[in-house]
Amino acid sequence: MAEELNVSMSQNFIHDFIDEDIAQGGQYQGMTVHTRFPPEPNGYLHIGHCKALTIDFGTAEKYGGICNLRMDDTNPSKEDVEYVEAIQEDIHWLGFDWGDRFFYASDYFPQMYEYAVELIRKGLAYVCELSPEEFKEHRGSIGIPATSPWRDRPMEESLDLFERMKNGEFPNGKYTLRAKIDLASGNFNMRDPVIYRINHAHHHRQGDKWCIYPMYDFAHPIEDALEGITHSLCSLEFENHRPLYDWVANNVSIPYHKPRQIEFARLGIDHTVMSKRKLRQLVEEGRVSGWDDPRMPTLCGLRRRGYTPKSIRNFCDRVGVTKSDNTIEYAFLEYCLREDLNETARRVMAVLRPVKLVITNYPAGQSETFEVENNPLHPEEGTHTVTFSRELWIEGEDFLSQPVPKYKRLYPNGPECRLKGAYLIKCVGYETDENGNITEIAAEYDPDSRGGNPADGRKVKGATIHWVDASTAVDAEVRLYDNLFSDPEPDGLGKDFLECLNPGSLEVLTGCKVEAGLSDAQPSDSFQFLRQGYFCADSKDSKPGHLVFNRSVSLKDSFKPQ
């Protein structure tokens, strides 16, 4: 592994099958458990892929086995090296590693072609001239077999046409190669499926060497078998494709054991979409700033927002591995992040909507320092120093000129309040501009209450509020994120997902004030802004002199995990 995260995978039904397979008398007795993660490099990995890759890599890890990383680059139209590199980065970030087991499906094109020729010679494949529209017309329906006017094409003729397809003599759509299986099968995937098609497209690795490309259902079992995969773990939509997977593996002469395919339910999360096509549309239409927009469900977006590898892996493990589709609340993903950051994030003070507080009886020109604990859950992590002087910044919401019932913060002649870790203060007045906006709050402090505890032991009725010293404060931009979609099911039947976008998914605050110690914050650093939430420095836009912080998750929520 690239990084030890101490996240173990829970036992599930896949592991029950594997236990049987490697036990005495099992089909893989004495063999190393060997899995693979085969993403198509046509986009960035998202949280849905994360479930699959944690199952693939986590299962191999659990059994002391190995997991291959394979780029499923059999469709050149939208594949790119940019996505290959991003996928590798995301997997390493999560703490998994493939060692020297990195492959491209396109490396097997010569073997796949030869296996297709083998099927033609065996009478198990033929070249078909049906157009996509005609193919649908001949597909049949439930109880009505499909038909194929080219099924009995002589083997020699199919061999000749298939070679000429490979040589580029025909345009896209002119011919396909179909497996000859069962036109009357109740499983439509077995009704002589297409296993090769013509596609005159430039491949990101193969260039223009190939103009015919294998279909996934033909390529995948061959790739798995050539790599020695024991367990091909995939999402539930491939369950009906398993007979075709097994048919290919059993009818080509691969001199290795045949892998076992096991399916599991995909991960669904509310208030988001998982379709690469739709995510790409959001990017290309400028609805988000890019694939790594912190509102996106992509791993690079979640990383930029401040999610940690441990929180995501814990989320995937706790969601579990099932055979039934279900939708998980996005709030549970946030819960897992909040749980992790509560343990690890350093506590600091930041004022997002600042208003000036002047302590009128504090000596002008004087300053002092206080120690603020870095994490109360871990006293061994010590403290950091903050400065204090006559003028401070506090949150605008911590003052009301006319208090509402049960308001326990600052207002004229109101109760004493604690300045976090510093002194007790009492509001004695305020100033406004010509529009009635509060511009300055006046308060007096009790010099005998250093640390927030009055010398006479009197009871403090007001709240504790955070602050930042005006003389040393650093300006920052803060971005507050919410769900990208206001509708919990933007992918629902009959819905236009673009119409479900949340117009309030991003709020940008400028002129925020943060502790001076945050001036060198790094993108990998997470902080708890006291009373505000968990934040991290933005990996793209934050730099010395222009700090930008993203809110990763709010400080607390009413969500309770089941």
Structure description:
The protein is of the alpha/beta class and 562 residues long. It has helices at 13-22, 47-62, 81-93, 109-121, 132-137, 155-166, 216-226, 242-251, 276-284, 299-305, 309-319, 330-344, and strands at residues 34-37, 66-71, 102-104, 125-128, 176-179, 194-198, 212-214, 231-235, 260-264, 267-269, 326-328, 346-348, 350-351, 354-359, 367-373, 383-389, 391-395, 417-419, 424-432, 438-445, 464-465, 468-469, 474-481, 506-514, 526-529, 533-537, 547-554. The protein has 12 helices and 27 strands. It has a 7-stranded mixed sheet, covered by helices on one side. A 7-stranded mixed sheet has the order 21-18-19-20-14-17-22, with no helix packed on it. The longest helix has 16 residues, at 47-62.
